Amino acid sequence: MLATLRADPDWRILAFNAALAVATALLFGLAPAWQALKVDLWSTLKEAAGSVGGNRGSVRLRKSLVTAQVAFSFLLVAGALLFVKTLLNLKEMNPGFRNIDKIVTFQIDPARSGYSLPRLMAFYQQVLENVRSLPEVRSAGYAWVSLLSGREADWDVLVEGQPAVDGDTQAYINGLSPGYWRTMGVPLLEGRDFQDGDVDGRPKVAIVNRKFASRFFGNRSPIGRRITLDVGPRSRPDLEIAGIEIVGLVEDSLYDGPREGVRRQVFFSFPQMNQPVGTAFYVRTSADSGRVFAALRRKVRELDATMPIYEMKTLEDQLDETLGTERLTATLSAAFGMLATLLAAVGLYGVMALTVARRTREIGLRMALGARQGALLWMVMKEAFGLLGIGLALGIPCAFLLSRYVSSQLFGVAAADLGTAAAASITLAAVAAAAAFVPARRASTIDPIQALRHE
Fold first, then answer.
1. Is residue 171 part of a domain?
2. Enclosing H/E stretch for 158
3. Of the four, 192, 218, 335, 449, which is 20 to 30 A from 418 by CA?
4. Is-contact 87 168, C-beta < 8 A?
5. pLDDT in the model for residue 41
């Protein structure tokens, strides 16, 4: 069962955040006050009157905090980039279906409404015919297991005349109607599709995907080979499926979400499965999905006005839902990364402004002795980049050590990705340059006479 994330207010979370905020305010508010109580009065009186913002110890503390901010910001920015790359990689993965924004899916379950098996099979066929009669519908089909929904059915499959391949015989199962492959846009590579004559009482047939064929048959054709489902102790007599002939080979497509990738799959003709279960219909349209939704509901209710219709959406939306966790992770990590970077920028700006204020007379003296504005600008910027360098020197090893804890959540990108580390470093360097430029520019434009008089 898929876990759901609830956004309802929780008093425990609110209380924890409130306590954390109070503790943070007390800690970072009392620390400077406590440091101020330990000031040596004689040393303080001997300090130049122009030194602004406290003694050297307090300045070192501020610089240490800014360095820690930079290191922490690197961790968050690098992590955000990794999760964003993961989301993009998953979204760009080819699902195997063509033009999924034009495929509408919905589910019905007549068995829950008391339909007998013969009536259920007839009802599915009638729904299919009704749906196909719509002018905006190009093709339609249905499947026992809904795709990309977290539902799955996997059994061991034995190939007649062939021993188990390395003991791994698992394959994912689905039951399909004729017309399903055309609707989904998955090409038939070899053999034939299911036909209306593939019903209960006729020889059982199956279609396999490329990954299944490669696993069990290598480069040989699977057409005409026979397989048996080994359902073990879970089986019932009406579910025993043996001696099934493979009549078709289709291209690979997703069964679960993109993260799970392509599975080995075996597809059966749904009428031959002889089971009273619900199905997911798939309809390829040429019109806007919003207008098609109402038309599809009307066509089903023409047959049974009380039949519940649920999970109606486009296949694109269904695929998008499978990435909900990744999207939430990428969004939150990006938000925290931007917030941390903003705080680091504010910290750098504050420290550089304080540095310029403390060194006003020194800067004036340098200018009186002929120092150029560019040299003074670089003098301040160099100090900012020094703090940035120390912060990155701390943040990069920490990110490398912590990378193994997030590696299982990534897809298509290494946890210790050099490109991501470089992008995070460049981002922080740009932020540091922007934060330090204003104080540096102010320092380079100081009037030497006023600076030498500064107290």
1. yes
2. strand 154-159
3. 335
4. no
5. 55
**What φ, ψ does residue 8 adopt, rounded to 5°?**
-65, 145
| Short-list 277, 105, 46, CA closest to 175 | 277
Task: Tell the residue number behind the tokens 């009428």, with chain if given.
Answer: 271
Q: Provide the CB-side half-sphere exposure for 292 (13 A, CA).
A: 26
C-alpha distances out from residue 268 to 24, 142, 218, Å: 61, 12, 22
- Say how far apart CA 13 and CA 320 lie, in whole Å: 29
Quick check: 174 and 143 in contact, CB under 8 A? yes
In Å, how far from its chain's centre is CA 219?
35
Six token digits for residue 336: 């925290």
Is the four-CA dihedral 346, 352, 353, 355 of positive or negative sign? positive
Alpha-carbon distance of 54 to 354, in angstroms, equals 10
C-alpha span between 222 and 159 (Å, rounded) = 10
pLDDT greater at residue 174 or residue 369: 174
**Pairwise CA distance, residues 89 & 134, whole Å:** 37
Per the model's pLDDT, the better-predicted residue between 447 and 181 turns out to be 181
Q: Is residue 223 part of a domain?
A: yes
Residue 267: which domain range? 110-307
Q: Based on the domain organization, do 347 and 221 belong to the same domain?
A: no
CA atoms of 233 and 212, how far apart (whole Å) = 24
